[in-house]
Amino acid sequence: MSKENFKEVETIIGPTVKVEGDFKADGNVIIEGQISGTFKTKKGLRVGEGALIKATIEAENAWVGGQVEGNLIIKNHLELSSNARVKGDIEAQILTMETGAQINGTVKMGENADNVKIIEE
Amino acid sequence: MYYYIYDQFLSHKKYDKIIAQIEGKITDLGIKDRIIKMSILKSVKELVMDALRKGATTIVAVGNDQTVNKVVNLIVAEPVVFGIIPIGDNNSIAKFLGINNPLSACEIISARKVETINLGEVNSEYFINSIKIHDHKLTLECNDRFKITTLSKKNLISIYNFSPGTDMNLKSKKFFNPQDNFLEVVVEPKDEKTLNNFIYSLLKKEKNKLPESVFRVKKISIKNTEQKSGSVVVDDFKVMKTPLNIRVSDKKLKIIVGKERHF
C-alpha cells in the first residue's frame, strides 16, 4: 500500500471529528482527525499528516504520516512517512521508513512478528 | 392489482395536464386498476389500509419524497410491491431509483423490475432516504462501540440509506448502497475559518474545504446536548426531536426500480 493508490475506502475520519472507543472496520480506512481507544481494520489504514491518534492500531497494511501514541500491529507492510511520529511498539512483516520518521518504542519485524493477526470479531 | 395513491397537492389545477397524461399512459400500458386520492377528509392511512383490504398487490405513490415517506411507513410490513410516479419538486428518492419523470415512471412500473432495499428506522418510524442534523457540536454513539464527536463549530450531519447526490467527493461505490444493510454517517464541516481548517489547508498546501467524514454503521444513538432537545429532519420534511435511536431496520421494502438506478 502507498499513499497514492489508496482509493477504495470504507471509512473516512476527517479532520473535524474525534472518534473515541472501540472502532472496527472491514475495509480501508483514512484517518485525518483524532481517534482514541482501540482501532482495528481487516484491510489498509492511512493516517494523514494532521491526524492525532491515541490508540492501539491493528491493520493489514498501514501508511502513517501523522502522530500515533499507541502500539501499531500491522500484519504486512507498514510505511512511515517523514512526518510520522510513533510513540509505541511496532509489529510488522515489512517496515519502510522515510528520513525524518520517528519511532519511540520497540520494533518487531519479519519472523518475529509472525504472531501478528487481525483479530476477528 | 395496482393502486395509485395521489398526494393531496396534486389536486391543484397546474397538475391537471400531467395527471391526464399519466392516466392515459397507464391505461395504454394496461396497469390502471384503482386510483385513490389523499384529501383533508381521508387520511393516507385510511386510503392505504383500504387498498390493502381490497387486495392491492402493487401500491404506487404519486407525488414527491414526502408522499413516498408517508406511504412507505404504512406498507412496510405488508406483502406488496411499491412504486413511485414522481411529480413536482423534491423527488430525490425517485431519481436515485432511476425514475426521472412521470411518464417514464409509468413504463418502469409496467416493466416491473423489483429490488429489495433496506429501510432506516428512527425511534418507531421508518425512513427511506436520510436524516439530517444541523448542529454546532454533537456526539453520536455508534454500534454501541464508539462515539463520534464533531470538532468543527458548524456541521451538517447526515445519515443516509440512499445516495446524497452528486455534490460530494465520495468516490467509493461501497457507500450509499441501500442493499448493504448499513447506514452511512456523513459529517460535513460548514464553517470555513477554523483552526482545524487552517492547519489542514497548510498541510495540504491548498485552500479546499475540509473533507467530509464517512462512517458505515448499523446503529446510532443521538442524545440531548446539555439537557436540550435538538431537531433532525427525516427524509427532508419530517422534523423529529432528540433523543433518537436510529438503525437499519429488519424490515425491507420491495420496490420497482428503473434501469438508471444508482445502485
Automatic annotation (TrEMBL), chain A:
SUPFAM superfamilies: Trimeric LpxA-like enzymes. Signal peptide: none annotated. InterPro entries: BacA/B, Trimer_LpxA-like_sf. It holds the Pfam family Bactofilin. Belongs to the bactofilin family. This is Cell shape determination protein CcmA. The lineage of its organism: Bacteria, Candidatus Kueneniibacteriota.
TrEMBL record, chain B:
SUPFAM superfamilies: NAD kinase/diacylglycerol kinase-like. It comes from the Bacteria. GO terms for molecular function: kinase activity. Residues 45-126 form the DAGKc domain. PROSITE patterns: DAGK. Gene3D superfamilies: Probable inorganic polyphosphate/atp-NAD kinase, domain 1. InterPro entries: ATP-NAD_kinase_N, Diacylglycerol_kinase_cat_dom, NAD/diacylglycerol_kinase_sf. This is DAGKc domain-containing protein.
